[in-house]
Amino acid sequence: MQIYTLRGARRLQLTGQMALQPTPSVQGQVCLPDAVQTVLSGSEREAENFATTIPFESFVAAEAPFILDFAPLPPGVLSTPAAEAAEVATITFQPDAAEGASYILIHEIQTPEGAIYDLTLPKPRPEGALLADHKAGMLYFPIQRLVSGQRLPNPAGPGVLGKINEEGKLPESGTLKHIFQIAKAPIEQTLVQTIAAAEGPGRVLPVNADQTLGKALEGNEAWRSRFAEDKEYRVLLFLHGFGSNAKNSLPRAWLKTFGAHYDALLAYNYPTISKFPNHNAADLLAQIPEELRLKVDIIAHSGGGLVARSLVELQQPYPKFKVQKVLTCGTPHGGTSLADQERWERLVSLGLTAASWLAATMGAGVIATFSPKMLELILRAAGQLIFDLPGLQALAPKSEFLRELNAPSDPSIAQRVTYAAITSTFNALNLPQRNFGEALASLLVQIFMESPNDLIVPTESMSQIDGGNSPLLGKRVYQTDTNHFGYFDKPETINFASTFLLG
Questions:
Q1: Are 445 and 314 part of one and the same domain?
Q2: pLDDT in tens, 139-149
Q3: pLDDT, tens digit, for every residue of 117-138?
Q4: Which of 62, 150, 236, 436 is most solvent-facing, going by the fewest CB within 10 Å?
Q5: Based on the domain organization, do 131 and 208 belong to the same domain?
Q6: Do residues 115 and 217 share a domain?
Q7: Cα–Cα dist 154/160, whole Å
Q8: Three-class SS state of 361
Q9: What is the pLDDT of residue 170?
Q10: How far apart are the first and last CA of the chain?
Q11: Share of the chain above pLDDT 70, in %
Q12: What SS3 state is found at 76?
């Protein structure tokens, strides 16, 4: 076990391939194990002091993990949120070009409230970096200060978050453990096809009385066994959000409250990364037999709202599927900066961090909205410079899809369909868990430039239907203070949904 002391901006050569370059204001210690260990998945935890808990399958360790014990920055340095997100160090890594791999830096902060993640792809050579230190193919990973430590308990003494003892542990309660590791995944030429296969095709699932999902309605006979041809049915359809599925995000409390007012409850499980929302809408309509008569209300979470709007605004109306009311919750009608290519790593970081936080604060049984497997595939795509993923392209604020969707709608649509939207302004700094509050606020500064948001979608975007002046939406907007994963958990949102859909 090796322990280094950070002094000013002195460069530390940690291994033959990896070096750490701190900024002058950073002080602390670095603890480095004697050998590389595989610690990414949590399945191999032989080195408890360094083991991380990222549920990735294809990334493996490229270098030994190390602990960085930050001392707080001088007073005034962290006076603004932007300063908290500032770069405090750079890790350089010289890969083996023959390996054919993409690389990421995993920064995990272990806290009593769960783990905080900042996953970083390599950046171009920093401006002002010494040419003598630069080699062909060198990778540069910036380290952002996600948690300042300025307001945290300090049992280890003045000015230090927690001293590393002889075993490389941080045993004191309340301390933060910053673990870093460079990981690699093999280049996969068929990654786009892998993503499509992982998501699978779109399927419509019946929702049972106990809010479980039944067998998919595949083929005309399956539909006819559930819906008679000579009857009109009132149906409530749920559309899940980006990177998720119907099972993980089904609004069970809502369905239990007012689902009995409908003849049938359905959920559409569809690919959110490999297909555009309007293509998912077309696929849904193609599955329904022409002779059925369904009057449909829709509850849509996040990107599911764009599928719902595509059904109404970009598809021809059909007697078999008459949409009457659409309620969107945290939908990026005007897009989200997380979908911009240079921010995909932040999407993954926020998704993993939010899942960790929810599991720690609400119990280990909580279901994360984002699928870790989908987040890993997005990160791998970004690492391979693969950006032709339709579902993500559609969510970018200036996408061609959103331009078409938000063009002025046919006025006749507003005579037969009504929209409502639940939006949110969530302040991470108000969380009782200070570590998470600071980390989430710091990540969001890097994404949204401090504009109000729910962690994933800017608040303003959630009501920007047809540019924000749509007769489809009108004044039917309810604002809450939940995060992106909590829209279905609050009594007031249930009441608003019930009033809108059943009123």
A1: yes
A2: 999 998 787 65
A3: 999 999 887 665 554 455 778 9
A4: 150
A5: no
A6: no
A7: 7
A8: helix
A9: 40
A10: 67
A11: 83
A12: coil
Question: Which of 222, 198, 217 minimizes the C-alpha distance to 206?
Answer: 217
Q: How many helices (H) and strands (E) does the chain have?
A: 13, 18
Q: Letter for the amino acid at 32?
A: L
**Boundary-marking domain end, from 158, 187, 216:** 187
User: Is the model more confident about 382 or about 85?
Assistant: 382
C-beta separation of 207 from 333 below 8 A: no
Based on the domain organization, do 255 and 126 belong to the same domain?
A: no
Dihedral sign from CA coordinates of 251, 252, 258, 261: positive
Count of CA atoms in the C-beta half-sphere (13 A) of 385: 3
Question: What's the mean pLDDT when you consider all of the chain?
Answer: 85
Quote the pLDDT of residue 355.
86
Number of alpha carbons in the 13 Å side-chain half-sphere of residue 54: 35
Co-location of 222 and 93 in the same domain? no
Q: Is the pLDDT of residue 89 over 80?
A: yes
Q: What is the pLDDT of residue 266?
A: 98
- Rounded (10°) angle between helices 191-199 and 372-383: 170
Nearest-angstrom CA–CA distance, 257 and 490: 12
Q: What's the structural domain count of the chain?
A: 2
| Nearest Cα to Cα of residue 336 among 464, 429, 210, 431 | 464
Is 179 found in the same domain as 197?
A: no
